[in-house]
Amino acid sequence: MTSPARRLRPGEPCAFVAFGAMGDLTRRKLLPALYNLQANQLLPRELAFIGVARRALDDAGFRAYAEAAARAGAARPAGAPPAADFTTCVHYVQGDFEDPATYARLSDALAHAAKEHGTSGNALFYLATPPGEFSAIVRGLAGAGLTRQDAGWRRVVVEKPFGRDLDSARALNRELTQALDEGQVFRIDHYLGKETVQNLMVFRFANGMFEPIWNRRYVDHVQITVAEELGVEGRGGYYEQAGLVRDIVQNHMLQLLALVAMEPPSTLAPEAVRNEKVKVLEAIRPMEPEQVLRDCVRGQYGAGIVGGARVPGYREEPGVSPESRTETFAALRLQVENWRWAGVPFYLRSGKRLARRDTQISIQFRRPPLLLFEEAGVEQIDPNRLDILIQPEEAICISMKAKRPGPGIVLEQVKLDFSYAQFGPLPPATGYERLLHDVMIGDAELFHRADLVEASWRIVTPVLDVWASLPARDFPNYEAGAWGPAASAELLARDGRRWAGPG
Ligand SMILES: NC(=O)C1=CN([C@@H]2O[C@H](COP(=O)(O)OP(=O)(O)OC[C@H]3O[C@@H](n4cnc5c(N)ncnc54)[C@H](OP(=O)(O)O)[C@@H]3O)[C@@H](O)[C@H]2O)C=CC1
Ligand SMILES: O=C1O[C@H](COP(=O)(O)O)[C@@H](O)[C@H](O)[C@H]1O
Fold first, then answer.
1. CA 358 from centre of chain
2. Is 310 a known ligand-binding residue?
3. Ligand 1 pocket test target in 19, 25, 27, 96 with most atoms within 8 Å of CB
């Protein structure tokens, strides 16, 4: 485990190479995150930022672009140096990822960075590109000898979705390991960089009171919701290829599930934590087709009202087919078939253009075994619930019953609350700061191992296969601004339950 002192020191000298430098991720997340890191003295002084993209630009043009992006997306504490300070280390390499000449130019830029910025030959290659480009870039880097570590470390950060299904994820893993050691590969999932997600491990394993009840004897079921108000935001071309399950469920949501359901690791060593995550995901058996039809719901939004404004339906978004069959909503009922969780359903739901942004986990406990308050007229007692609110509100709440003051017994639902606001305002962050710093110090704990990615695909690939074989006659089947199709509520109603959070 990386020492706390190491975490507070700047990352190691390096060239940060962003493939896809003019894309949405680099602009909205990576540049602002680096800028935030710099404001917190966590960037190495010996840093070069090299953008690689197709557009014709020179260093000065890209510098202006990077400065504007960093400024727009980051919030600087008072007294932090201005953005231009950060961008003095910015350079640009123009080229197509499929063209070997791009890597020859990049090689020159790296040599220049080592000389001008003292990067010690270290390089972090960030693949902020459409997933279809990952293999070509790794081949290009290896072909130009840029993955060799004889003159400094070379690390490759691979974005999600990692593959399209189990077979393509395996093929990509094989390609990566032909060119790189596993220790050079950082498969990123930005949800693991969020404060509240990191807190899940602390909450479970630093508080002895929850562990004894964290199992099928006491837990009735678990719900995970990742609701977005946003639509596809100009990423229609990407989204048509991905869909909600590849974009959110296979990665972010199964990570949340793994953190809730995994066994305590024997240590916090990255491998020990990753082993437990893989084990719990492997305990979710792939679904048979009839199970997919019964336990999985898909949806696509039509036009509607979100945040008071009328928004177009998914099929009207730029880059989307007017007959698109791509899902923008999914709800799944999963079973973790192990000793701890047998018989406890895990309900997952996520969607674009829902009524509001809301990511939360609800652990619903069993009802008390005896209705002691029947005589006082209380016929049914709501079960206790533990809600872990991840965004936008960051809090942990326990819902329980208390007696309302006064004569007689009147039970009232009350909340025991912990809000992150108690720590004071959280530093503004994109979620990428911690993860980028981790790569610069070589800490892989919050990154996925090959088997973890494959275990996640093993769960969702049968769902995608069945859906691909079905006609999508009923799309769109929910209005933008609603909480998904009616079948989502029915999935729980069938089991005598309902969504605990929003909707
Ligand atoms: N955007 C987001 O919020 C998030 C994105 N991600 C992941 O990050 C990755 C990038 O996403 P995003 O930034 O949205 O994608 P974009 O489509 O916005 O950006 C991709 C960039 O790659 C460039 N590019 C594509 N093909 C080539 C090529 N052959 N040669 C040179 N340049 C090329 C594009 O250049 P050009 O402009 O010339 O087409 C574009 O600048 C994806 O894997 C996505 O899943 C993950 C989490 C969040
Ligand atoms: O990975 C992705 O995540 C974002 C949602 O991230 P959040 O941190 O705002 O919750 C999602 O909008 C995007 O489609 C997806 O690619």
1. 14
2. no
3. 25
Q: Quickly tell me which residue has 């290829």 as its tokens.
A: 241
Number of the ligand 2 atom closest to the C-alpha atom of 391? 10
**Is 286 in contact with 463 (CB distance < 8 Å)?**
no
Task: Tell me how far apart the alpha carbons of residues 258 and 251 are, in angstroms, rounded to a whole number.
Answer: 10
This complex has an ipTM of 0.97
Q: How far is CA 6 from the centre of its chain?
A: 25
Of all ligands present, the nearest one to the C-alpha of 431 is 2
Nearest to residue 393, comparing CAs of 440, 359, 427, 444?
Answer: 359
Q: How far apart are CA 330 and CA 501, in angstroms?
A: 16
228 lines ligand 2 (CB under 6 A): yes
> What is the torsional sign of CA 242, 489, 222, 200?
positive
Residue 502 confidence class, pLDDT cut points 50, 70, 90: low
Query: Which residues, other chains included, contact 288 with Cβ-Cβ below 8 Å and sequence gap of 6+?
Result: 462
Residue 228 is labelled as binding a ligand: yes
Report which ligand 1 atom has the smallest distance to the Cα of 161: 45
Measured distance CA(486)–CA(483) in Å, rounded: 8
Is there an atom of ligand 1 within 6 Å of 73 CB? Answer: no
Number of Cα atoms under 13 Å in the Cβ half of residue 430: 27
Closest ligand 1 atom to Cα of 247: 45
Q: How far is the CA of 480 from the centre of ligand 1 (A)?
A: 26
| 430 CA distance to ligand 2 middle (Å) | 11
Arithmetic mean of pLDDT, 298-326:
96
pLDDT tens readout for residues 370-425: 666 676 666 677 789 999 999 998 899 998 888 888 887 888 888 899 888 888 77
276: part of which helix (H) or strand (E)?
A: helix 270-282
Mean pLDDT for 114-135 is 95
* Structure token digits, residue 243: 């869909």
For the chain, how many residues are written? 503
Peptide bond before 212: cis, by omega within 30 degrees of 0?
no
Strand residue runs (E) in 102-161: 123-127, 154-158
In this structure, what are the phi and psi dihedrals at residue 154, rounded to the nearest 5 degrees? -130, 120
Between CA 264 and CA 301 the distance in angstroms is 39
Give start and end residues of each alpha helix (H) in 374-477: 433-441, 450-468
Domains, in order of start, for the chain: 4-159 (3.40.50.720), 192-430+450-493 (3.30.360.10)
Catalytic site positions: 252
19 CB burial (10 A radius; 0-12, 13-18, 19+):
buried
pTM here? 0.93
387 is in an annotated binding site: no
Question: Which amino acid is present at 80?
Answer: A
